[in-house]
Write a structure and sequence with these properties.
Layout lengths: L18 H10 L3 E5 L3 H9 L4 E4 L3 H4 L11 H13 L5 E5 L9 H13 L4 E3 L7 H9 L4 E6 L5 H4 L10 H15 L3 E5 L3 H10 L4 E4 L7 E4 L1 H4 L17 H18 L11
Parallel strand pairs: 1-2, 1-8, 2-3, 3-4, 4-5, 5-6, 6-7, 7-8
C-alpha cells in the first residue's frame, strides 16, 4: 500500500504523516482533516479512523482544565498531554500548541520550549501571530522544529482583539495576507486561519504554496480543523456559527451516567455476573 496521504484515511501505513505529506496533498488538491486531542483514548480513536493530523491545542484550557479561555494555559499544563497523544498514536502528525507566554519574549525562549515539546513526542509546533513572531519562526525552523503559523482570530490575543470577533475584514485582509506570506518566507510549513472571511481565506490559500487550515474560514482552505469536543457535541451550547456537531455525545454520556447511577441506587448493579467467586 502506498504511503501517500490519501491512503491514511482508513488504511494502515508503517509511518507517521509528515509535513511533506501535507505539502504533497496541497499540490494534488487533496483536502484533509485535523482534530484536537488531549488524551490517550481520543488520540487512539482518531488514529484508528484515519485522522492524519492531531493538534494538542491550548484549547485544553477551556476543554480540559476548566479555564475560561486559553490565556492561563502553561507549558506544564500541555507537556503531559502532548506526551499522552504522541505515545498513543502511530500515524498522525502530532502538533503541540505553544501556550501564551512561552514564545513571545525571545526566539531563544521559543526554541527552548519547542524543544521541550519535541522531547515529549511532538513532530511540530504551532504558534500565533504574524510579523511579530518571524524571528521565532526562523530560529525554530533553522533548528529543525517544523512550525505551523496561526492568523486571524488568535485566541491568546483575545484581550487585545476585544473578544471573539471576525478578523481580516477590509484593509485588515491585506495585512493578514502580508503576514501569511512573511510566515511562509520564514519557513512555516502550514498556516491556520481562524474566523476570517471566506473570500480572504481562499485568497490566502491561492497565494501561498504551503497548506492552509481553516476554522471558521469557509471551504476554500486546504484543510479544516475543529476542537474535538465541539465536533462531537460534548461542549454545551450551540457553539460558534462555523461549528457543525457530528454527534450528540453530551446526551449519550449523560444518559449513560444517569443509567449507571439509577442502577446503583436500585441495587441492580453490580449483578451476579459482575462479581468474582
Amino acid at each position: 500500500m502506498s504511503d501517500e496521504l490519501s491512503t491514511l484515511y482508513g488504511g494502515v501505513t508503517s509511518r507517521r504523516v509528515t509535513t511533506l505529506d501535507l505539502q504533497k496533498a496541497k499540490d494534488r488538491g487533496e483536502k484533509w482533516a485535523m482534530l484536537t486531542s488531549y488524551d490517550s483514548l481520543t488520540a487512539q480513536l482518531f488514529d484508528e479512523v484515519g485522522i492524519p493530523v492531531l493538534l494538542v491545542g491550548d484549547s485544553a484550557g477551556n476543554n480540559v482544565l476548566g479555564f475560561e479561555n486559553t490565556v492561563p494555559v502553561t507549558m506544564e499544563d500541555l507537556l503531559p498531554l502532548v506526551r499522552a497523544v504522541a505515545l498513543s498514536t502511530k500515524r498522525p502528525l502530532v502538533i503541540a500548541d505553544m501556550p501564551f507566554g512561552s514564545y513571545q519574549e525571545t526566539p531563544a525562549q521559543a526554541l527552548h520550549n519547542a524543544v521541550r515539546f519535541m522531547r515529549m513526542g511532538a513532530q511540530a509546533i504551532k504558534l500565533e501571530g504574524g510579523r511579530r513572531v518571524l524571528h521565532q519562526v526562523e530560529l525554530l525552523v533553522e533548528s529543525g522544529v517544523p512550525v505551523m503559523g496561526h492568523l486571524g482570530l488568535t485566541p491568546q490575543s483575545v484581550n487585545t482583539l476585544g473578544g471573539y470577533r471576525v478578523q481580516g475584514r477590509g484593509a485588515a485582509g491585506d495585512q493578514l495576507l502580508d503576514d501569511a506570506l512573511a510566515l511562509q518566507e520564514a519557513g512555516a510549513f502550514a498556516l491556520a486561519l481562524e474566523v476570517v472571511p471566506a473570500d480572504l481565506a481562499e485568497r490566502v490559500t491561492k497565494e501561498l504554496t504551503i497548506p492552509t487550515i481553516g476554522i471558521g474560514a469557509g471551504a476554500g482552505t486546504d484543510a479544516q480543523v475543529l476542537v474535538w469536543t465541539d465536533m462531537a457535541g460534548l461542549t454545551p451550547g450551540p457553539g460558534p456559527k462555523f461549528l457543525k456537531k457530528y454527534a450528540d455525545l453530551r446526551t449519550v454520556l449523560g444518559d449513560a451516567a444517569r443509567a449507571y447511577a439509577d442502577e446503583v441506587r436500585e441495587g441492580s448493579y453490580p449483578a451476579t455476573e459482575h462479581g468474582y467467586s
